[in-house]
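Weekly modeling sync, notes
Attendees: AB, CL, MP (scribe)

Item 1: holo prediction request
CL wants a bound-state model with nitromethyldethia coenzyme A before deciding which constructs to order. AB pointed out that an apo prediction alone won't tell us much about the pocket. Agreed to run with the ligand included and paste results into these notes for async review.

Input as submitted:
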Amino acid sequence: MSTLKDKLYEKIQEHRLRTTKLVKEYGDKVIDQVTVSQAIGGMRGIKSLVTDISYLDPFEGIRYRGFTLPEVLEKLPKPEGADMPYVEGLYFLLLTGEIPTEIEVEELKVDFKNRRIVPHYVWDVIDAFPSNSHPMAILSAAVMSLERESHFNVKYRKGMSKMDYWDSTYEDATNLIAKMPLIGAYIYNKLYHPENGHRYPDPNLDLGGNFAYMMGKDKPYDDVSRMYFIIHADHESGNVSAHTGHLVASSLSDVYYATSAMINGLAGPLHGLANQEVLRWLQGLKDQMGGKIPSEEEMKKYVWDTLNKGQVIPGYGHAVLRKTDPRYTVQREFCLKNLPDDDLFKYVDALYKVVPDILREQGKAKNPWPNVDAQSGVVQWHYGVTQYDFYTVLFSIGRSFGVLSNIIWDRALGYALERPKSVTTDMLEEMVGIK
Ligand code: NMX
Ligand code: MLT
């Protein structure tokens, strides 16, 4: 058994007592109420999910296991000479709540290496897709095709105690996480750089370093990958991808079904796909300007034109956040250090100066500030990943760390099948007294 799994099991045993006590002794305590607009309006703000892996404060942004992103990036062990920490260390932190030692990260690196072999049929599934397919559809199908590898299913069929669900779920989740970067890089090379061929991982590199290597990218793309996967890993449980993963897994579907579903949720333009939409929208502005950097007035006009057409400004607004997303800030600081003169970065920075005021003036968006997606494409574009359809695949690889950590804990704590109650419009009208 690996150190991570031992430590996780200790934590699970301690935590089970807390959950059992809450349900047994305080199960009837009211923690929230639901309004009509919440029921109709996407359940915004209803406190009805529990996770200890991350928490999103509207004004502070995300904390992973109590650590802010700058703290996570500072405290997790880093490869020699790197600015960004090992992604493997993040998995340890998300699962256990503890910052791993160098030795614990080293063990996990080896463990991931042993788990990352991708069966050949997955490459066949990817190859079977027409080359104009969206990479998110390919990723979802590739993950789905791995379902036959599930240990959980084999054990479940043989008859397994509920107390043991977490164990084979951990095995499935870790196997899948180790394979995700290989699948992502293969899709990238197949769609956009067939001349790269099939680049197998380098046994001496960590997950982030290997992703850069398989993508055919030089330094500092290894740090870009580490940063990218870490900041996208989790955003508490109510966002579409995390919630979908949790929902599907709550029926005891295995992690392959659940992860494929979470990828499908991430593929919408109001969620993860917004990162490609930002680039598409910015390219539109660039084309209109014939390449020159627009003046503030020209930029304002482009933003207003978009709003007046009834469209959203991609990369701005958020369902929970009410300030600039710290994930935007982390990437902005990376840009200031590594690509301060990049044209696209200048565009994005100039937008930051005009969009919030315009959104406030329009008066609709509750949060006029940029979210993670406003900045992430700039970094990728700078390092030559200009095929913006691919950006949400990167988001998916990062997000799988959070979603899968959550599913392991869901199983460990015996979280129930998710099944909220619906009402009809007639019933709502009766409840408010208009019928
Ligand atoms: N541009 C224009 N209008 C906006 C924006 C925006 N960026 N954000 C919100 N609004 C509108 C929204 O469409 C709604 O309009 P209506 O009343 O006509 O339906 C109104 O403002 C109120 O919406 P909110 O309550 O502020 O936002 P909500 O919680 O419903 O939605 C988002 C959150 C993220 C879906 C929304 O802000 C949005 O569409 N943003 C642009 C897309 C985006 O960047 N998504 C990525 C989010 C982060 N991620 O990675 O998932
Ligand atoms: C996310 O990272 O999931 C997005 O910011 C969306 C959200 O939290 O609702």
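Recorded for review: The mean pLDDT is 97.
Action items: CL to compare against the apo run; MP to circulate these notes.
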